[in-house]
Each structure stands twice: as structure tokens, then as C-alpha cells.
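Researcher: Quick test of sequence recovery. C-alpha cells follow.
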């Protein structure tokens, strides 16, 4: 498995976490049927990894994250989840990594969890939701957290979640189908146009799902950026080229062609989106990705794995 894929968009759940989410009123995860809550275990995940040729999966918690409505409960849940993820990594050090969850919007608790997760548990980075209770990535209320992550040049894995007002915005469809893609764009657009992308340029940010609609918005965003005489930031495409992008979801030829307009191939990373994506769909998406011609003639597997090793500081 020394030349196998590195999966940076891989999830786990625990029974306690699922029950906590349901108790908090999130019985239908982001509008999906209640039965869609996936149960995770390392053995099943490793079986899939072996089938798919995945050498290492960096585990993270997906939406809705650890903040389910109560600050104190979020603090305790983040600690429990992060210790579980670190435990999986200890049991399978060659196969699993871990992105830690933070109990935002509680800034003090999040700063404490950053120190514990990165310094004590050895997490590979942190996972942030696109918003927490309407507080987005560039919001000044969480500025100390971004300053600390920037100081550490931390890897930050971004994951979409439901937005405030999703009841109307999602039109009754499951939010992961449409709204998640726009929610990712919403927080990245704000991150760039607010100047946060320049302020926190040492963050190593992973944008999910092949950038979603961001390639199609780049020119329109640049038009509006230049209409503001007070905006002295760099061109939008330059900012977009400062991020990494995982290929979870529908990373087919049209999406990758669009993504190439805002990102170089050395910024692209593999993502399976397991366990929220069933194994058969993971294997099918990977087969489709293998068929897409890489601009350099290399294989996507080798290219994304090299990029992930560099990002995560893994030995060749």
C-alpha cells in the first residue's frame, strides 16, 4: 500500500454521536432520511480501503459537526470525538489519520481544543464546518481561532453544513444534493472578499467537492470585486489558487475541466466521502476518476497521493 491513495475526505461516526444528534433534533441529517445515518467501524472501512487501493484515510466528523445547540455539550462532545479519532489512529497508525473537530462558536473552548488535539493527540489538522449557527469562516467573532490556526500553518479541512434558512433555500431537497455546494461557495467567497484569505495566508485550506460552483463564479466575483474601489486585494482567481481542493463527489471530466481554471493539479487531493457515501458509490466514482485523463499524463492516484503526502508531511 506504499503507493496507494491518501483519502483526505473520509468520515466516521460513533453511536453516541448519532444519538446526541438525534436528541438535539437532527434525526434527519441535513434533510436526508433518518435511516441514512451511517454506522462506522474501522474493519468495514479498512475493507473498502483495500478494495479501492486507499493506503490512508484522514478521518473527520461530517455535518452537523459537534455543535448541536449547546456550547457546553459541544465542548464535551468535541473532546470525546477527538479522543475517539486519535484512538483509531493509534490502533491503525499506518492506515488512518484524523482531523479534529472544534466546539465553535465558543472561541476559548476551540482554542483549548486546538492545543489539545494538535499538540497532545497528534491530529493532522482540524475540520471546520462552513458555518456554525450562521457564523461563517471569515466572521470576526472567531478571528482568534483563525489567527491561531494561521500561526500554526495548520491544515484546515472545510466541510459544508446546512445554512440558516435552509428550510426555504433547499426547496425541500436534501441539503447535500444542492445546497451544500452553494454553502461551500458562500463561505469561500466571503473568506476571499472580506480579506480573510490574505490575512490568514498560512492556513492550508482544503475546499471540498472539487470546488463545487466556485470555478463558474470566479469571473463574476472578480467583476464585483473590481467595482469596489476600497477592495485592494488580489484577483479572485489568485486567491482561489491558494487553496487545496478534494475530489470527493462528482469529480468527473466536466467538473475537473472547470476546476482546472482555478487550481493547478498539485492542489488536488483524493476524497471518498465514505462513510456518508456507500462503498459501491465510492468504488464507482473512483473508477470514473481513473478514466479521466490527467493533464500531465500521470495517473490521478499518483498525483493526488503525492500532493497529500506533501500537505500532511508524510514520508514518501
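Model:
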Amino acid at each position: 500500500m506504499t503507493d496507494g491513495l491518501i483519502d483526505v475526505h473520509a468520515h466516521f461516526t460513533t453511536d453516541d454521536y448519532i444519538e446526541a444528534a438525534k436528541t438535539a433534533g437532527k434525526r434527519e441529517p441535513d434533510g436526508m432520511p433518518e435511516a441514512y445515518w451511517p454506522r462506522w467501524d474501522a474493519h468495514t472501512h479498512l475493507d473498502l480501503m483495500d478494495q479501492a487501493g486507499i493506503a490512508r484515510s484522514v478521518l473527520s466528523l461530517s455535518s452537523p459537526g459537534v455543535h448541536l445547540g449547546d456550547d457546553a455539550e459541544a465542548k464535551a462532545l468535541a473532546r470525546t470525538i477527538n479522543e475517539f479519532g486519535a484512538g483509531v489512529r493509534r490502533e491503525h497508525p499506518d492506515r488512518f489519520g484524523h482531523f479534529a473537530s472544534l466546539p465553535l462558536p465558543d472561541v476559548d473552548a476551540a482554542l483549548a481544543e486546538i492545543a489539545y488535539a494538535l499538540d497532545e493527540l497528534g491530529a493532522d489538522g482540524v475540520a471546520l464546518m462552513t458555518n456554525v449557527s450562521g457564523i461563517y469562516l471569515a466572521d470576526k467573532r472567531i478571528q482568534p481561532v483563525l489567527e491561531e490556526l494561521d500561526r500554526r500553518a495548520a491544515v484546515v479541512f472545510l466541510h459544508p453544513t446546512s445554512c440558516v434558512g435552509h428550510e426555504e433555500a433547499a426547496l425541500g431537497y436534501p441539503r447535500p444534493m444542492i445546497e451544500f455546494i452553494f454553502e461551500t461557495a458562500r463561505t469561500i467567497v466571503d473568506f476571499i472578499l472580506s480579506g480573510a484569505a490574505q490575512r490568514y495566508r498560512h492556513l492550508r485550506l482544503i475546499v471540498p467537492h472539487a470546488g463545487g460552483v466556485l470555478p463558474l463564479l470566479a469571473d463574476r466575483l472578480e467583476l464585483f470585486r473590481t467595482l469596489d474601489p476600497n477592495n485592494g486585494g488580489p484577483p479572485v482567481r489568485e486567491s482561489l489558487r491558494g487553496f487545496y481542493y478534494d475530489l470527493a463527489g462528482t469529480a468527473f471530466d466536466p467538473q475537473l475541466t472547470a476546476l482546472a481554471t482555478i487550481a493547478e493539479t498539485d492542489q488536488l487531493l483524493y476524497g471518498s466521502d465514505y462513510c456518508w457515501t456507500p462503498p459501491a458509490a465510492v468504488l464507482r466514482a473512483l473508477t470514473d476518476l481513473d478514466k479521466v485523463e490527467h493533464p500531465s499524463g500521470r495517473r490521478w492516484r499518483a498525483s493526488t497521493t503525492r500532493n497529500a503526502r506533501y500537505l500532511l508531511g508524510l514520508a514518501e
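Residues 7 and 57 are 5 Å apart (CA to CA).
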